[in-house]
């Protein structure tokens, strides 16, 4: 069965290009188009779509507002943002987007986004083994973060923890959260041995842990050393290994 897709973009050439690219995939059928946020919401409330390709900046409501409005509906579609603006990726994943494509992109990149959307797009990484790993840290000790047309190199010592975000990862720094195009598993392989996988969705810099607090049924909560005293959960399975590493 083909997935029903809605294209939302205020520029006709962009909609035409998306129709062309989507036409190369047999499992997707474009059944609607909207030129602004208001039209998109009308269509989304009148028909059950499986997938929405959504621009960010449009008249009649931004793509972020549209995604937020429909994400709790009974038949909420998977949302892929397709935009010329690279600066809204963190906001996009906060409204449960499956992927974020920056124009121009090709059929191969779109295909990966479609696969992620239509295969379920799990939020979390596969559960890792709590056994000690043999880390292969990046020789520079830095993680590239795309910010607009710039690439900022974030020193791993500045990372408090990382969390999974649908095949990407958020890096929590002292004063901000940034999105990187690496999965949590990929980050774990790149970062040094002082990073510990506390949960399928979290990777923590142990150098920034201030306190360990007991939680339900043998699990732990880590209190970080930032101003907000951020907290990160440690699953019961990984709590045993962490206690062993710390000699507790």
TrEMBL record:
Residues 4-118 form the Response regulatory domain. The keyword Phosphoprotein applies. One of its GO terms (molecular function) is phosphorelay response regulator activity. Residues 129-138 have a biased composition (Pro residues). It comes from the Bacteria. Keywords: Phosphoprotein. InterPro entries: CheY-like_superfamily, LytR-like, LytTR_DNA-bd_dom, Sig_transdc_resp-reg_receiver. SUPFAM superfamilies: CheY-like. Residues 143-248 form the HTH LytTR-type domain. The keyword Transport does not apply. Residues 118-142 are annotated as: Disordered. The modification 4-aspartylphosphate is found at residue 55. This is Two component transcriptional regulator, LytTR family.
């Amino acid at each position: 069965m083909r997935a029903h897709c809605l294209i939302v973009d205020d520029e006709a050439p962009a909609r035409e290009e998306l129709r062309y690219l989507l036409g190369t995939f047999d499992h997707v059928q474009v059944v609607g188009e909207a030129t602004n946020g208001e039209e998109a919401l009308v269509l989304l409330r009148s028909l059950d779509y499986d997938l929405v390709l959504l621009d960010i900046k449009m008249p009649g409501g931004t793509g972020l507002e549209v995604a937020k409005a429909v994400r709790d509906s009974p038949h909420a579609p998977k949302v892929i943002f397709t935009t010329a603006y690279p600066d809204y990726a963190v906001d996009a994943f906060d409204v449960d987007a499956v992927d974020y494509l920056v124009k121009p992109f090709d059929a191969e990149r779109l295909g990966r986004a479609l696969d992620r959307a239509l295969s379920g797009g799990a939020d979390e990484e596969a559960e890792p083994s709590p056994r000690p790993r043999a880390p292969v840290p990046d020789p520079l000790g830095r993680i590239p973060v795309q910010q607009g047309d710039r690439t900022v190199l974030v020193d791993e010592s500045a990372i408090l923890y990382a969390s999974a975000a649908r095949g990407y990862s958020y890096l929590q720094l002292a004063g901000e959260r940034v999105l990187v195009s690496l999965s949590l598993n990929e980050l774990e392989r790149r970062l040094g041995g002082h990073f510990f996988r506390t949960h399928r969705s979290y990777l923590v810099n142990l150098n920034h842990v201030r306190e360990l607090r007991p939680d339900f049924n043998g699990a732990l909560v880590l209190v970080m050393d930032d101003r907000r005293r951020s907290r990160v959960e440690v699953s019961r399975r990984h709590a045993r290994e962490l206690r062993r590493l710390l000699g507790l």
